[in-house]
Amino acid sequence: MLTLLHTSAVHVPVFDALRDAAHPGLALRHHVDAELLERARGEGPDAVADAVVAVLQRAVAEGARAVLCTCSTLGGVAEAAAAEVGVPVLRVDRPMAAAAVAVGPRVLVLAALESTLAPTAALIEEEARRAGRPVTVRTRLVDGAWPRFEVGDTDGYLRRVTEAADSVTDADMIVLAQASMAPAGESTRTRVPVLASPAPGLAAAAAAVAARPGRPGQVVPDLPGHG
User: Fold this and answer.
1) Which among 12, 26, 36, 108 could disulfide-bond with 171, CB atoms 3.0 to 4.6 Å apart, if both were Cys?
2) Region 193-198: what's the mean pLDDT?
3) Average per-residue pLDDT in the chain?
């Protein structure tokens, strides 16, 4: 079973649909905790490190063979906690970052939430060093997008992200820093390639589950307390 740690319930149907399309039979369990992101925004990601570890330990106790953190703000904290929980803990945006640096040296990160910019840029630079490739990472906050997300205006949120991507001309790759931005990558008309994290992130997590010993699980319903 794969547990997904979300900070918004909007991700649940997205990853369920990706699982059904590309990884049928993979058992998913969703844990949603919006408060983790709120605290991280106000106090910094390290402030919620202990709380993240507690969530991961609970996931392992419930049978998780790997955990995928879909929140880019918390991804580094979750990934660093893997040694404490004994199963692979993946951040959804790492495969996207690795793909971005393989395309070209000029990477532009678009994010709707300011707290996501620095962790995503740092991750891309880390993957560039790992690959031995030069990279210049620029970041841009999509003005007005996050307030629309917070009030549930998904169409308005994605429209802002799409418009921001369409305005980019001086990059080799556009990285959509948050998983919730992924649909905008399908509607943008920019000539610059656009990468989003959900599909490659879930693929990496599915591979981690498959590599763990034990019998592959079947799809199971979420337990109370899980979104």
Assistant:
1) 108
2) 97
3) 92
Stated pTM of the model: 0.89
Q: Is 129 helix (H, G, I), strand (E, B) or coil?
A: helix
DSSP letter string, 30-58: EEE-HHHHHHHHHH-GGGGHHHHHHHHHH
Q: Which of 72-76, 102-106, 177-181, 223-227 has the lowest mean pLDDT?
A: 223-227
CA pair distance 40, 43, nearest whole angstrom = 5
φ, ψ of residue 19 to 5 degrees: the values are: -60, -45
In contact, 165 and 185? CB cutoff 8 Å = yes
End-to-end C-alpha distance for the chain, whole angstroms: 16
Q: Give yes or no for a contact between 70 and 9, defined as CB atoms under 8 angstroms apart.
A: no
Kindly provide the residue ranges of all beta strands, DSSP E only, lying in 53-152, ordered along the sequence: 66-69, 89-91, 106-111, 136-141
Q: Which two tokens stand for residue 51?
A: 């709380």
The HSE-up count of residue 35 (CA atoms within 13 Å, CB side) is: 4
Q: Report d(CA 123, CA 126) in Å as an integer.
A: 5
Q: 144 with 153: CB under 8 angstroms?
A: no
The dihedral region occupied by 69, where left means phi > 0, alpha psi between -120 and 50, and beta the remainder, is beta
